[in-house]
Design a protein that fits this description.
Layout (H helix, E strand, L loop, with lengths): L4 H30 L15 H20 L4 H6 L2 H4 L7 H20 L19 E9 L4 H12 L4 E7 L4 E7 L5 H10 L3 E2 L9
Helix pairs in contact: 1-2, 1-5, 2-5
């Protein structure tokens, strides 16, 4: 009899569901590291399932800890073999603790994923008021603050960007820029480079 097996299975399931719950925000970071940011929004369809995956992760980890900490019945003690008396590291509480910690970090990933995106320092320059333009882009595919930071980082790499604010809740990105140095086409291309989809078609793109 192997009493630790159910808790191990639950632990592995907890890892899988925790990663799945945050994969929509993990993917952009991995894409950035790999230099293939165009796949950033590939798993955005998972976002509506996130609450259910979080709940499932918590349930399976609670079950794993219950299996690990509950007192053994007399039948289990009587059936225990020598191998069961000396569990490996993979069957230990230490391993389950590591799994729980990892799952927690994965579930919280959307709240700190923006730290992976460097925001360039902007020098203070004088811009003629007549050159300042402001435009709001409707953008699909953002699911967390990490997605916002991804778009903001790409746009800020352009010359002439005065300010940029992306919002996954409002599904838009507001950009203030110096039209003598950049234009809407360049900004749209920067957004498209991230893999998120612009759905704003009301305004004419300047060439």
């Amino acid at each position: 009899m192997v009493p630790n097996k159910p808790s191990n299975t639950a632990a592995y399931t907890g890892i899988f569901t925790a990663v799945a719950a945050s994969i929509c925000c993990i993917t952009p970071v991995l894409a950035l590291i790999a230099g293939t940011s165009g796949i950033a929004s590939t798993f955005s369809w998972v976002e509506p399932l996130r609450p259910y995956l979080i709940g499932l992760t918590i349930i399976v980890l609670v079950f794993a800890w219950y299996q690990k900490l509950r007192p053994k019945t007399q039948e289990e003690i009587d059936c225990a073999c020598e191998d069961d008396a000396k569990p490996t590291f993979w069957q230990s509480k230490q391993f389950l603790f590591i799994v729980t910690l990892f799952a927690g970090l994965m579930l919280a990933f959307p709240y700190y994923s923006n730290l992976f995106y460097a925001q360039p320092t902007k020098d203070i320059v004088y811009v003629s008021q007549s050159n300042i333009e402001k435009h709001t882009f409707e953008v699909e595919g953002m699911t967390c603050e990490g997605c916002e930071a991804h778009i903001e980082s790409e746009i800020n790499n352009l010359d002439g960007i005065l300010s940029v604010k992306a919002s996954y809740e409002k599904t838009n990105t507001v950009v203030e820029y110096d039209k003598s140095k950049t234009n809407l086409t360049a900004i749209r291309e920067a957004i498209n480079k991230t893999g998120y989809k612009i759905i704003d078609t009301e305004n004419k793109i300047e060439k």
